[in-house]
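During the reporting period, we have paired protein sequences with C-alpha cells. One record among many follows, to show the layout:
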Amino acid sequence: MKSSIVSIAPFLSACSPVITLGVRSSLADYSPDERRLMWNARTILFPTPRFAGIFQAIGKATLPNAMTYRHWRSRVDQEILFQYLGLPHPRTRLYFGKRQKLRIPGDYSVPFLAMGPEAHGHTLHKVSSLEELAFILHKYNPLIIQEYMDWTVRIRVLCILDQCLAFQKLGPGQSLEPAVERWEPIPAEADEAVVVKRLTCRFLHSVDVNAVVIEWGLSEGTWHIIRMNRPAPAWKTPTGEIRYHRCICSLAQAGRL
C-alpha cells in the first residue's frame, strides 16, 4: 500500500494530501482499514497526547511527536531538560512535599516566581512576600521556584521541524499574565532575531521536539531560555499572519513530511 500522510485530530481536514481519521477513544475503535492506513503512513499528524507515545513506540514519525506533547504540558520536564543541557536559565528548583518546601525562604529572596508542574499561564505566580508564599505552598506538588529576573527584552520563536518561522518581541516591565502580554512581531533580519535564531537552532538540534514556541530572555548581556509553549493557531508577523495548521499543510503539500 502506498504510504500517505494521516492526521488523527481534524485540524487538516481541508488539506488535500492528508487523510483525516478523527480522534477516538482507543486505537481499537478504528476500522482495520484505518489502522492499516496508520501503519503504512510515512507521517501521522496531530496524533494527540493519547496516541503519540504509542506511535513513538513502534517508530512511527509524528508531528507533533510524543516529546513535544510532553513538554507542552509539563513545566517539570522543561526545567529538568534545561538544567540537563546546561543552558543559561533562571535559577530554578523543584520542591516536593512539606519538608522540602520549608527550605524555600532560605533558598530564595522575594520576589521570586512560584509555578505549578503544569505548563499553563495560570499556574505561574510572582511571590512578593512570605504571606503570599504560604498561600501557594499547598497548591502545587511539586512546587517550582524560580528567581525573578528583570528582562531587558524577551523574544519568542515559532518553530516547526527545524525551521524558525517567526519572531515576536516583548519589552521590559510587562505583566507575567499571558492573557495581557503584548507581543510585537519583528522581522527575522532584526539583530536580536538573528541571535535568538542561532540559539534556537542549536537547541532544536539537541532535543526531540518538532512543533513548539521557544521563549528567550536577555539579562545583563546573556540570553536565557525561559520556557516552551504550544503554538497558537495564529501568529502575527511584520508581513501578515501565519496560521500554524496551514503551515503544516504546506509542509505536507511540499513533500517535507
Remarks:
- The chain has a mean pLDDT of 94.
- Residues 18 and 101 are 49 Å apart (CA to CA).
